[in-house]
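Project standup — Tuesday

K.O.: blocked on the structure for the chain from last sprint. Re-posting the sequence here as requested.
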Amino acid sequence: MLSYPGFFVLSPTKSNLMPVSAFFIVLLIVASSSFFLGRYRAIASVDGNSKQLHSRPNYYGYYVALWTIVPALFIAGLWGALENNVTASMVLSHLPETIQTTDAAKRSLLSNDIRNLALGHIVGRSPEAWLIAAAEKYKSIQNVATTLFFALFVITMSVGFSWSFKRIMPSLRARTTVENFVKFLLLLCSATAILTTIGIVLSLIFESIRFFEKIPLTDFLFGLEWSPQTAIRADQVGSTGLFGVAPLFLGTLFISFIAMCVATPVGLMAAIYTAEYAPSKIRGLIKPILEILAGIPTVVYGFFAALTVAPFFRDAGDAVGFSISSESALVAGGVMGIMLIPFISSLSDDIIRAVPDSLREGSYGLGATQTETIRQVILPAALPGIVGSLILAASRAIGETMIVVMAAGLSANMTINPLEAVTTVTVQIVTLLVGDQEFDSAKTLAAFALGLLLFFVTLLLNVIALWVVNRYREQYD
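H.V.: unblocked you, prediction finished:
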């Protein structure tokens, strides 16, 4: 047992659990062995004539491997989900009665202290004797639990392998079983995505309801001032607690509008050139370079805006007599527009190239030039897809955060002057959730209300994009 001034730590103990990488290597070896054994038994059951099997030999190997690994993985996942809670409950049941009757939050903190002591982590106070005994109890329970887990895991794999291996016979529909498992796995992945989305929406809704219990919905939607600092004392200065979202929403739309004004002409013209005018070698050079912009992290764009673009605009404004703020909507929108260029150019390029060549040939046959064909035939035919790409880029602009934080500032100004500082919904969400604050305060809960509003705005944009595509889409042979 080691002690330090002001701290206490149990001697570090080595966990009986193998590393995760070694665990998966063992699983891979077991699965591979099960596969080859199942395949060998299937071929041996027909004396090497695989044509007598219902399915191909590999499916029998997959069948045995799945029955060997999947039930064991299910047991491991279930064990991992329940182990900590069960262990903590067993340890807490041996503590004094006065501690067991405390509230859930204190018991949770106590469980963390016991776990940290058992694992040899330093804690910020000298523990009592009963806490040391609880940590030792935790270690002993963990050791027993680890042994039981490995035994159960090995038994599950052995039973699964034995049962599936004995069922290998020529008439076994192994392919049907394997394909049904794959279908179930795909369905499970789809359901996970759907349930995750539902969980996100419900979490936003529930926390937003708590916010609107403190702040009226009308004040939030139609208020013209944003000052989320709430007063702790009646005489506190600078804590007005105003939650009008109009300045944030105006700033979001304004910066997005500037970004789209930059990205739309550049991205669309680049798409027209690469799709219709550029030779194949030049297209193979330009298109990847444009798409590199999509791989640059947004924080890099923020640095570029703050260190290069903002000083350039400020110096240019001083040269002609304009006062341009170092943090302005023009800088943030302009750099964000550069970021959106690959979204528009890449999608529009694919859409334009998808227009059937028969339309081009028919236009040329009627005597139209290439420019006339692009303007009067190709672009109208590709218009629904182009509009969809523009709305997708707009959704991306509305959800951007880092560029606005570094280039537009945090001032919630009700203005449409591109030379002044503004802020957006996403920036305020980040600001509200940074730092040590009470989670039940209106200031913190406002972040969820802003997130819910942003969710509905982007959802509306996606619905409009789908409507435009379905309404004006042309069907070609």
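K.O.: great, moving the ticket to review. The beta strands are 2-4, 7-9, 226-230, 240-243. Residues 173-214 form one domain.
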